[in-house]
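okkk here we go again. third time trying to get the NAP bound version out, last two times i messed up the smiles copy paste (missing a bracket lol). double checked this time i swear
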Amino acid sequence: MSRPQRRNILITGASSGLGAGMAREFAARGRNLALAARRVDRLDALRSELLAEHPHITVAVRALDVDRHDDVFTVFRELDEELGGLDRVIVNAGLGKGQPLGTGYFRANAQTAQTNFLGALAQSEAALELMRPRNAGHVVLISSMSALRGMPRNMTTYGASKAGVAALGEGMRSDLAGTGIDVSTIFPGYIRSEINEKVKKVPFIVDTETGCRALAAAIEKEPAKAYVPGWPWIPLAYAMKVLPLSVVRRMS
Ligand SMILES: NC(=O)c1ccc[n+]([C@@H]2O[C@H](COP(=O)([O-])OP(=O)(O)OC[C@H]3O[C@@H](n4cnc5c(N)ncnc54)[C@H](OP(=O)(O)O)[C@@H]3O)[C@@H](O)[C@H]2O)c1
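finally!!
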């Protein structure tokens, strides 16, 4: 069965990195965009850039902190109305502030868990409230390769929050099986963005444009799961799932 084209796409965390990069990719494909993040000046600048290059699309922007859950529902409803119905919601807003557990950084770890997991839950709820009555739509959850196994050091809480996102995605997919609503969980490998700009040596990292091109292509296929970019992350995903933790620890 051919898939409906997703014309109206909401992306959270669109003020930088992967969110902004995916916005550029989907704008180039002629899609209308709803862009949300806290730094609305960045969203306005991105909107101007996209409309200059693609004058036929619509780009709506809203300030949104996904930790303010009531605002998530309000903003999603407003953007849905402004674009005439959201066909795809990309749950992308996230951060990577964690520190090793037990070293005095509970607040940073709690903030990472709050934004990455509870924020994704609020966004998924808000998206499905719009999509269930229409029995149509595509929810995309941006997880991470670090969700596949327990991660050491600064990545422990981040990886756990992204494992939660992946479990949420699979559960939603199971719950919505046989309906007109699709759910995809995307596991990005390392893609250069603000989240890792201070980290010098990052294995297999690709630049933002290359990474976002691969992300948009993967999302368009609407898979249950995708490891992106496929090389080397598909074989690495397989390896990470079967290797002993002592080996996985050295890979991360
Ligand atoms: N880059 C990678 O290698 C990589 C790998 C795997 C997964 N990911 C995931 O990809 C997603 C995008 O990250 P990125 O790499 O593009 O990093 P980034 O450049 O730091 O972008 C993060 C985005 O999330 C937004 N955000 C953070 N906290 C928010 C909040 N409370 N409310 C609303 N928006 C919030 C930020 O916008 P404001 O600050 O303007 O609100 C920003 O637009 C994240 O979920 C990240 O975990 C990235």
